[in-house]
Amino acid sequence: MLRLTSCLLITFSTLQPQVTGLEIMKKLEAQPEPRDVVSKTVLTLTKIMKAKERHRSREIMRYEKYFSEGSFLSKSLIRFTKPADVKGTALLIWEYRKRGKDNDQWFYLPALKKTKRIISNQKNQSFMGSDFTYQDMEGRDIDDDTYTILGEEELFGETCFKVEAKPVEKGTYSRRIIWVEKERSILRKVEFFDRKDILLKVMTIPEVRKDGDYWTILKMVMENVQKSHRTILEVSNVQYDIGIEDSFFTERFLKRER
Amino acid sequence: MRFALLLLPVALSAQLHYSGSAQPAGMFRSSDGSEISLPFRMAELKLGYTLGNFDIKTSSSLEYRWSTGETEFDLREAYAVWYPRFGEVKVGKQIHAWGAADGNNPTDNLNAYDYYYLFLPGTDRKIGSLSAAVSAYLGAWQIEAIVIPEHVPNRYTFGEEDFPIKPPFEPGEYIKVEGPLEYGARLQTTVGESDLSVSYFEGHDRGFSLIGMNYLQLQSVNMVLPLPQFGYRSTSVLGGDFVTFFGDLTLRGEMGFFMTANEANDCCDALLPLEAEYLQYVLQGEVTGPFDIQFSGQFIGSTVLKAEGLTFNQVILQQTELTKDSFVPGMGTPFAMFSKQAIMLSGTGNLMDNSLELRATTLVNLEEAGMMGGFGVAYSPLENWEIELGLTQFFGDEADPTNPFTQLEDFSHISVGFKYSF
Question: Which of A255, B142, B190, B330 is least crowded, fewest Cβ atoms below 10 Å from its Cβ?
C-alpha cells in the first residue's frame, strides 16, 4: 500500500540497479510501518493572486493506526484545533484491506453535535479548503496503478528515480509522476495530472527527518498550478508507537472535542 | 508538601479549553427598512475542562436586544462526561441531537425549541435540559439511552410584536406535569453502505395544548363561566432514520410516529379526553455539483392519522368533537407549524479561496400557497473574522390571512452582522 501524502514515514532501503517501476514502488511499500502515530500539523493555505499572496492556516491533530492483518489497512482520526471557527471539527477514516471496498469516512460537526457519514465519491473534494483531496489524505493501493521508469533526476541534492504511475481504472488523476530517492527510497515529489492529462498539482517534500526506525516528513508542499493555490503542511510533535487503542478510532472519540 | 506532589501529576494532565464568538447583528424589515426588535446572542462561550477520562463542558451565551439594551446571560449547557471503555456517560444540563436529516428531525424530541432562534441551525435553536445519557459502542452497533427528570417546554415569543410565529395566546398558567420523568433510547447500526437507526422516546409535549376545563360559578348572575386549562400532553415517539448512498447521491430519511393523549388527572373540573396519532417524515437528498456547490433537497411532511376526543370551541363556548383538522401536534419538528407538506431546496458554494460563502434556500409549501426564499453571504476578510449578510423573504396568500406564510410576510428581513471567533 503506497501512501503518498498520508504517510509520515519512509524507511531506509537501497534499491538495486535495473529495477522496474513496480519494484521501486514495492520498496517504498515494503518499508516497516509504525503501529501508530500521533502528530500535530499546521496547514498553511496560500492563494497566489498576481504579486500578492493571501495566507490562511489550519492546525490539526492527526492520529493514525496501521494494521498488518485483518479487515483494515489503517484507521485515522483528524481533529481541527485552529482556527476557532472550525475547532472541534473532526474526520474519521477507515481504510479497508479488501480491494475495491470504499473507505468509510465520518465527519463530526460540533455546531450540530452530529456525526455525518461522507459519501466515498466526495473523496475527490478538497479537504477543508486545502489542495489535498480526501483521497490524497487516504493514500492509494499499489495495484491500482502501472509503473514506468522515466529516468533519474537530482532533487533536494539527492538522485531520484522518476516513475510514471498510470491508473488501471479511470480515476481522479490521469497519471502521476513520482520522484523516489534512489539510495534511501524516500518519496520526494509527485506531479498529478488531471483527466485531460494537464498538470494539476505538484507535491514536494523538502524536509524529512529520521526518528528511530522511521522517516518523518517535516514539510510537504502541495501546489495546484491550475488554481494558483498552495498548501504547506508542516509536521511537529510526532510520536510513534504509543499504543493507541483501536477503540480510539470510533465515533465515540470523533465527538470528543478538545 | 506530600499532598502537593500528589496533586502535581493530576494538574499536569488536566486541560482547560475554550472557544467562543462575539457576533453583533441586526435585522431590518425588507419592506420598509425598519428594525425588527428581537433579542439575539451577542456573544457565546464554550468552556471545557478535561481530566483523564472526564470532561466538564459548559456553553453559555449573552442575549442582547438593541432596542432596549437589555442583556441576559444564559447557561445553555453545563454537564460532565465520563468516557469508560464501552462508550460515554453524560450528566447535566445538555442538548442532544438525534436523527439523520439536517435541520428538520421528527425523531429528535429530547430538547425543547427556543422560538427566538427557530431559524438557526443545529443545536443553536434548542434549549438544554437536565438529563443523563449513556452511549455504548459495540462493534457496528451503537446504543444511547437518555433519562430526563424534568419537563422543559418550548420558549415562545409571547408579547413580541415583531415575531409572528407563536401560539395565538399565552395561557396565564399551565397545569403542572405529573411525573415529569422522560426517557428514550436509540439504536444504530451499519448495514453495508447504510446506517440505520430506531428510536423510542416517552415524554411530554413541548408545546402546550388544551387539557381540560374548569367551571366558575358566577352566582350573582346565575352563570357558569368555562375556563380552559392548558398543559402538556403525554406523548410517545417511535422513530427511525437512515443514511445511504446511491452513486453521487447521499440519501437521508427520517420518520417519527407520535402517539399522544391527555393524561387523566385531577387537574380540572372536566378533563377533555384526547387520543391522537400522527406521522412526521423527512426525505433528504444531497449531491455535490459543479464548482463544489453542495445541493440539498428535503421533502418534509406530516399527517394526522387519528384524532379522537373532545375539545372546547371558544366561539360557541361548548365542548365539541376533536377532528384531524382541529388537532395541533405538540411535539416534533417546528416545521409542522408552517406546512403539512413542503419542499426545501438549498445550495451552498464557496468562492475567493473559501473566504466567501454563498447560500441560497427556498421552502415551498405544497399544500397551499406560501413560500420562503433566502439568500446569504458570509465573507471572511481575515482569519476568525466574518461579515454576514442575509435576505429572507416570505410570500403568503393575500386572500388567506390565516396562512402562516401570509403572517410571516411582514417578518421578511435583511440581516446584517459580523462575527469574531476565538
Answer: B190
Q: How much is the mean pLDDT over chain A?
A: 85
Q: Look at residue B9 and tell me whether its pLDDT is greater than 60.
A: no
Is A52 at the interface with chain B, CB within 8 A? no
Residue B86 or B201, more confident: B201
Read off the pTM: 0.84
Measured between beta carbons, the chain B residues lying within 8 angstroms of A172 are: none
Cβ–Cβ below 8 Å for B292 and A114: no
Interface of A with B in 214-233 (CB under 8 A): 229
- Residue whose cell numbers read 477514516: A93
- Cβ separation A252–B48 shorter than 8 A: no
**Which of B83, B121, B137 is nearest residue A112 as measured by Cβ atoms?**
B121
pLDDT value of position B172: 84
Q: Which residues of A touch B122 (CB under 8 A)?
A: 109, 111-114
Q: Does B53 touch chain A (CB under 8 A)?
A: no
Q: What pLDDT sits at residue A122?
A: 59
Closest residue in A to B350 (Cα) is: A129
Q: List pLDDT tens digits, range B210-224.
A: 998 888 888 787 888
pLDDT confidence of residue B6 = 37
Considering only residues 161 to 180 of chain A, which have any Cβ-Cβ distance to chain B shorter than 8 Å? none
CB contact under 8 A, A252 and B354: no
